[in-house]
Input
Amino acid sequence: MSLSDSANWAVNEFADADLGDLRRTQRLVDLAHILAQNPKASLPEACGSPAMLKGAYRFFENDDIEPDDIVQSHVEAKASPTTCPTIASTRCPWCWPCKIPRKSIGAA
Output
């Protein structure tokens, strides 16, 4: 996935997430963006810098962030197969939390 495609996908999927603080939502978009660029990379590899990695760990450890709020943003985005970062897979791992088979994403 190209840099601009992953950025557009991340914004489309997660920019409307209500995580209680706009900085948390921005961190979610940033993390989705970097992980979509290289979905097979480990978190330290994907983050690329100690600062981004520390921010990622702080995000994931934050008890004020509810996983359901992230999933809800994804579900409401009504992603289409053309924006999926792992289009080659039979079940998109980005859709796994809501258990939507990739072929049904974007279906009317």
User: Anything to note?
Assistant: The helical segments are 3-14, 22-37, 43-47, 50-61, 67-77.
